[in-house]
């Protein structure tokens, strides 16, 4: 029976793949975390508090939380709009746009940040346009950070809301329309309550990714 169970395993080489996964996870996550704990253990409580509450560190907390929250709120709105367009409308290039939503998943965040920085510096076409026309500097500012976080976070909202919109029964909208409800009223009271949990989930994941 044991031999038969081994043959029926879905993933061949499960033990080897699990060992490789744990080893890579140890090198990338566990060892750096342990080194951080060991380094922090050499500090006295007073030194530790002074380090984590220094003006520069507090400023980094503020920038991280504010830009992550702002980007996630933008993603919640724009992601809902993108998901709505992809589900409810047919247009040329729809498959390409749907596939492009996955690009931030494939790109490491560092690569995305470096690419967006080069696109928005004052010497680039986009950055130069905003700098000379509106006097707005994008690269190396909170605006640039927020822009990068919007880019890496919007797929979470789109992919959370899109399946819910696809499965939403159109009969409820038809019933509301027959009863005299406007499109705005139908969206607020029929559609939005159905997609709200998925929207909150997408916002949370986008916020976590942005904060990370």
- How much of the polypeptide forms β-strand, as a percent range? under 5%
Percentage of residues in helical conformation = over 70%
Enumerate how many helices there are, as a single number. Answer: 11
CATH topology of the largest domain: MetI-like fold
Instruction: Count the beta strands.
Output: 0
CATH first level of the largest domain: Mainly Alpha
The assigned structural class equals mainly alpha
- Mass-distribution shape: extended
CATH architecture group name of the largest domain: Orthogonal Bundle
* Unreliable stretches: none
Order of helices and strands: HHHHHHHHHHH
Mean pLDDT: 83
What Rg, in angstroms, do the CA atoms define?
24 Å
Major β-sheet, in short? Answer: none
Question: What's the CATH superfamily of the largest domain, by name?
Answer: MetI-like
Number of domains: 2
Describe this structure in words.
With 212 residues, this protein is an all-alpha fold. It has two domains: 1-42; 55-211, MetI-like (MetI-like fold, Orthogonal Bundle), CATH 1.10.3720.10. The protein is 82% helix and 0% strand. The protein has helices spanning 2-7, 14-41, 45-52, 55-88, 94-100, 103-106, 109-120, 125-134, 142-167, 170-178, 183-211. The radius of gyration is 24 Å and the shape is extended. It starts with a helix and ends with a helix.
